[in-house]
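Good morning N.,

You mentioned wanting to compare the apo and holo forms, so I went ahead and generated the holo version with nicotinamide-adenine-dinucleotide. This is what I fed in:
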Amino acid sequence: MTIVSLVTGVGPASSDLVPVGSYAAPLLDALRRAGLTVRERLLPAADAVLVLGAPDPATVALLLETGARGTPVLSVGPAPGLLSDAAGVLAGRVTPVHEVRVRPGPDAGEVPARLAGDLVVREAWPLLDKVADDVEVILTANVAFYDHPVATWRPATGVGLLTVGSLPGTFADPQWQRVVHRLLRHLIGERDADPVRVGVLGYGAIGHEHNAAITLTDGLELAAVCDPNPLRVQAARELTPTVRGHGRGEDLLADDGVDLVIVSTPPNSHAEWTLRALEAGKSVVVEKPFCLTVEEADRQVAAAAERGLTLAVYQNRRWDQDYLALKQVVRSGQLGEVFHYESFLGGYGHPCNYWHSDEAVSGGAIYDWGSHFLDWVMDLFPQPVEWVSATTHKRVWHDVTNADHSRVLVHFVDGVEAEFTHSDLAAALKPKFYVLGTEAGLIGDWRHEKVVQRSPIGTLLEDRMSHSDSPADLQLFRPDGFGGTSQTRLSLPPAPPQPFHRELADQLLSGWPMSVTPEGSRKNIALMQAATASAADGGRPAALPL
Ligand SMILES: NC(=O)c1ccc[n+]([C@@H]2O[C@H](COP(=O)([O-])OP(=O)(O)OC[C@H]3O[C@@H](n4cnc5c(N)ncnc54)[C@H](O)[C@@H]3O)[C@@H](O)[C@H]2O)c1
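and this is what came out, ligand included:
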């Protein structure tokens, strides 16, 4: 277990110097979730010392001794002050607060692995004018077309610096927190574990998405796939020619060259295969829905914990651009207190003729898209659910067993209500999102996009995209004080590259925690189970199973 001694000094959170400890909590929480033991004093037994802000001269003397004895000291903030000499730098002028794009330096090693672009923070930071020859430059940022060191490490004195990290917004930034963790590991000499060898169990439509994401993720390799249909194994080889193929799940679980299994068979077999893979000593990613009952979810979580294995659910839509923007607006408080939330998906058309429309296999219409839309509800609203009510209609598509139309209403203990409607009978569409808060409202309208191309013989080819394949168009409505509303179109954040798979690799290789947890997906299953029970009982309110 890695023990980190924490020393806090003062830092320029605003123009006045304030104790950095007052806004360090998000960083310390994140480091603890990564398995580090953080002790808020200087301990001789520590593996590293993390210094936040500028410490007093007596503490600096102790830190210099600590570094010289071989325990690395990482000083975070724009004022290395009395630690500068030992760090081997001369700190020049401090920039104004501005957007800083932090990039790998010449001695970065593994620190920037899976960073996915620049680390962007708003900070005031000192331009290090001079750096001694034995100083490693790990991260840099550019000012006036010149790269300045942002993170340095001097093994000879045991002192490292991270010069961006003085404002509360930076301390709350998960990407920056992750960089601090990776710097600490680098200074201690901890390296990432070997790449994780992945096996995909069930290489259907979603298998290709996993294959492509694994190919693009540093630290994951696709070692094997298993599907009874040899054409599917062949499909996997088109992208990854070296992959081993198995026809039976048992053979994939017995494959010693597989560390982690992605269970992407149809939903009614998720729990069984996940438990068997965990029993075989493999970590598991299970496709959505996690499973069909909370009892199954609990068994899987317990089995993973017993064996110290990773279990993750592929809640990939937590990173949908429209959901990321909506969540940011809700969390920022711009809507005031959100008390009413509606979401909708559907249209008028025959459901697919495949297992997705077979209640016995898919869990039913509530599970199919509820694994995403109701997962968003549980992610947005952390308060306990008081009851759930759901109704379903079976009126037109009698050749399939999923309901044609379903509506789930979630009532939280504080009176907040959230609804999700899924319909294959909706000739008239509702917006994807309709959210009301005490100060503003938000509508996420479906976009109706076309893809227009020229055919090989020069004629026009026009394809209508399914509206569910485009992020919603988000409009924020604010009262203007004169009885009307002003309307702002929200821009969407860029789609992060392979966010789930990068988090997965981070967790397995360095212990950095994933933002999606099986406990979160268990809440989603509890909600869908209760909604399904309520629908079977004519819509009477049902409590969530414990
Ligand atoms: N996260 C997402 O956005 C997303 C999108 C699509 C599907 N999914 C989920 O992924 C899972 C698979 O969906 P899909 O659309 O790829 O289905 P699919 O039917 O296209 O693929 C399932 C594959 O599993 C194989 N299979 C079935 N039983 C097997 C067994 N015992 N051993 C090995 N292989 C077996 C089938 O031959 C098939 O190739 C489902 O749980 C679905 O809900 C998730």
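The longest strand covers residues 146-154.

Happy to go through it together on a call whenever suits you.

Best,
F.
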